[in-house]
Amino acid sequence: MSLILGIDIGGTGSRVALGEVDVVAEPLGSIDSEPTVKLGTAVGTGFVPRIIDQLTGSRIEIGPSGSNVLRVVRELVRTAAETWPDRFSEVIGIGIGATGIASLAEDPSDALAAVSSEFGVSTVAAIDAVTAHLGALGGTGGAITVLGTGAIAIAHPGPGDEGIWSSDWSRADGWGHLFGDRGGGAWLGRHGLELALRTHDGLDERGRALLEAATRRFGPPASWPSQFYTRNDRAGLLAEFAVDIADCARAGDVASAELLRGAGQEAACSAVAAARADSGGRSFQAGQGGSTSADVVSEHGRTADSPIRIALTGGVAAAGGRLFEGFRTEAARLQPNVSIVEPAGGPLDGALTLGHLGAGGKLRGQSRIVWT
C-alpha cells in the first residue's frame, strides 16, 4: 500500500499525518435551500483522504530574519520517519501546507529538494489556503474563504482532462490585519472594540454588551491602547475578542449579531471575487453589485456567469448563525447561480491530497502559491 505524508503548519502549532488518498466520484452536498442559490450537483472525481496516524509539532516563529517554517518542515519529516519507521518506507509523497511560507520565508525550493533527496520521496508545498481548498472541496474546483485569525479566499477551476492541476490559483485578501483579512477573527475583534469604545465615549449605545464583554476580558478601556499597540501578536489578541462577540450574539445582542453577519458578507465577497477572477480572467469588484463581462471566456471554457461552488471554512466559521447567513445571502446577491457546499475536510486532509497530486505528477507550480 502506498502512503502519503501530510503536514499542516500554522501559527498555533503543526500537525503531520500518515494516510492514504482514495479517488472517488461523489457529489459534495449543498447546505443551502434558498431559491436564489442553486443546490450542489455532482462534481466529478475528487479525493477522500484517510488518516492512519498523526502527531503534533511546534508552531512557527517569526523574528527579524523571517519565519522558521522551513526548519519546522524538516523537523516534522524527520520526526515522522523516526515515529513510523516501518510505514514511512511506504510513503511515496509529502504534501506541506504552511502559513507564512510565501511571504515570511526564504524560497522553499531548496528546502523541498533537500527533503526529497534525504528521504527519497516527492515533496511539494503550498500556502495554507491551497491545502484548505483541497481539503474543503475534496480536491475539486471552486472557491473557499478561510476565516481564522486572518482571512483569505482562494479559487481554482479544478483538474483538467488529464487530471492535472494547472497554475491557475487565484486569491483575494490575505493582506493581514492592518490592510485586510476582512471577516476574520482580528477584523471582527477590531470592529467589536471600535463599537465598544463608541459606547464608552457616549456616541453609540448599541455596543453596551460589547463594552461589558471587552472590559471583562481586557480590563478598563483606558488600558487597551497599551495592551494592543505595543504587541507583535496584536492580530491574535484582537481575534480573541471574536469569541466574546459570538457569545454576545448567541445571548441575543443585536449589534454582535450584525458584526457576525458583516463578517460573513465580507467572506462571501472575497470568495466570489477569487472565483470571478479565476473564471473571467479579470478581478471582480466585490461589494459593488457589478459583474465581469459575461462574454469573457477563460481557457477552461467558463464565463464570469458560469455557476461557481464556494465554501466557508476556518475556526471563525464555526460561529455559524448570523455569520453564515451573511455569507449565504451576500454570495447569492453577487452570483445568483452560486452553489454553497459544506466543507468535506480540513487542511490536513488537503495536505494529504497535495502530496498525492505531487507524487502523481498532477500538480504544477505557481509563484508564491505552490512549489513542486
Overall description:
This protein is α/β, with parallel strands linked by helices and 372 residues long. The protein has 11 helices and 13 strands. It has helices at residues 69-83, 85-88, 109-119, 128-136, 185-200, 208-218, 224-229, 234-250, 254-280, 321-334, 347-359, and strands at residues 3-9, 14-24, 46-57, 62-63, 66-67, 91-98, 122-127, 142-147, 151-156, 170-173, 309-313, 339-340, 370-371. α6 crosses α8 (234-250), α8 crosses α9 and α9 (254-280) runs parallel beside α10. The radius of gyration is 21 Å and the shape is globular.
Sequence-ordered SSE layout with sheet pairings:
Elements: E1 3-9, E2 14-24, E3 46-57, E4 62-63, E5 66-67, H1 69-83, H2 85-88, E6 91-98, H3 109-119, E7 122-127, H4 128-136, E8 142-147, E9 151-156, E10 170-173, H5 185-200, H6 208-218, H7 224-229, H8 234-250, H9 254-280, E11 309-313, H10 321-334, E12 339-340, H11 347-359, E13 370-371
Parallel strand pairs: 1-6, 6-7, 8-11, 11-12
Antiparallel strand pairs: 1-2, 2-3, 4-5, 7-13, 8-9, 9-10
